Amino acid sequence: MINIMIQSYSMVALSCMINLRFLEWTAVNVVFMSLLTLITLIVLLAFPIGYWRFLNKRFDELETNEIKRRHSAFYKGLDLRNGRLVFLQPVWFMFRRLILAFIVVFLRGNVIWQIVLMTMTVIT
Fold first, then answer.
1. What is the number of structural domains in the chain?
2. Structural domain boundaries enclosing 106
3. Are 34 and 104 within 8 A, CB to CB?
4. Which of 8, 44, 47, 113 has its CA 20 to 30 A from that of 37?
5. d(CA 4, CA 112)
6. CB 49: neighbour CB atoms within 10 A?
7. Whole-model pTM?
8. DSSP 33-87
9. Is 24 helix (H, G, I), strand (E, B) or coil?
């Protein structure tokens, strides 16, 4: 489940940003779409932070079979000997995808801001 969430984060973020451009409150079906878009945006922002907090609380248990089997997709390839801060890397990975979706949808006509934001994410 976590693997699917991480791999589909970019697609969901892009879809959410596209729908954010068309928020309306006129008809029932459009209101439903707008509310679903806002809920999705909240989930996209809350998931990395919540999951980071979840794994930080269970940092000492990460080598147990149950935790490793269910959650290792989030921290696979990270050197856990460096401490709890290594979990910021996958969180930043997901936020970069959200920023990229924002750039593609909302800044499509402003190349300088696209370059500035992408450079900022790389430097950070």
1. 1
2. 2-123
3. no
4. 113
5. 33
6. 12
7. 0.81
8. HHHHHHHHHHHHHHHHHHHHHHHHHTGGGTTSHHHHHHHHHHHTT--GGG-GGGG
9. coil
